Amino acid sequence: MGVEDEPVGGRPAVIEVRVLPWRPRGRVMNHGIDLSPLSDMADDLIGGVVALVVGILSVLLLLVVLVGVVVVVLELWLVGVVALLLVLARFAGVLPWVVDTGRGTYERYRWLPNAARRVRTLNGTRHAQLRWHWS
Q1: How many other CB atoms are there within 10 angstroms of residue 122's CB atom?
Q2: CB atoms within 10 A of CB 48
Q3: How far is CA 27 from CA 20, 30, 96, in A?
Q4: What is the pLDDT of residues 7-66, one digit of tens each?
Q5: What is 7-64 written as a DSSP string?
Q6: What does the buried/exposed string (b/e) look like for 3-22 if buried means 16 or more CB atoms within 10 Å of the residue's CB?
Q7: What CA–CA distance (Å, rounded) separates 13 from 6?
Q8: How far apart are CA 81 and CA 87, in angstroms?
């Protein structure tokens, strides 16, 4: 019936399903600028200007990336220093440990072992539980 077993051209036959029902065309941008009458000198000048603009933009991009990296590194150090100062202030007794008694009242202790002892006596267990809050 004229059916061949082997595909033509060595590639297998496939069913082509397109999302868009038309074939995309190659587009050519034509702004109506004809550069053919320019001499070689003007062409070289335009090439130099384009190279200079690309170079300046590349340097600016590199500068923005480097400044971003420096700012991120400085921010990380700043966050680390603030966290370390808060931990030192907490354990030095400048910032109190707050014990929630479970009755709607709060007690403040400057030393962690005293706060842990109070939690153990309130709960009647050997372990003092911690609850973390951001504020």
Answers
A1: 15
A2: 10
A3: 17, 9, 70
A4: 455 565 454 555 555 566 667 777 777 666 666 666 677 778 888 999 999 999 999 999
A5: PGGGSPP-----SSSSPPPPP----S---TTS-HHHHHHHHHHHHHHHHHHHHHHHHH
A6: eeeeeeeeeeeeeeeeeeee
A7: 9
A8: 10
Residues in the chain: 135
Alpha-carbon separation of residue 49 from 62, 66, 71, 115 (angstroms): 20, 26, 33, 72
∠ Cα 25 27 29 (to 5°): 170
Give the other-Cβ count within 10 Å of 89's Cβ. Answer: 11
Residue with tokens 């009458």: 37
- Lookup: tokens for 128: 């003092």
Residue corresponding to tokens 């999302």: 19
Q: Which helix (H) or strand (E) holds 96?
A: none
Per-residue pLDDT tens over the stretch 120-131: 888 888 887 777
Q: Provide the 10 A C-beta neighbour count for residue 119.
A: 21
Name residue 85's amino acid: L
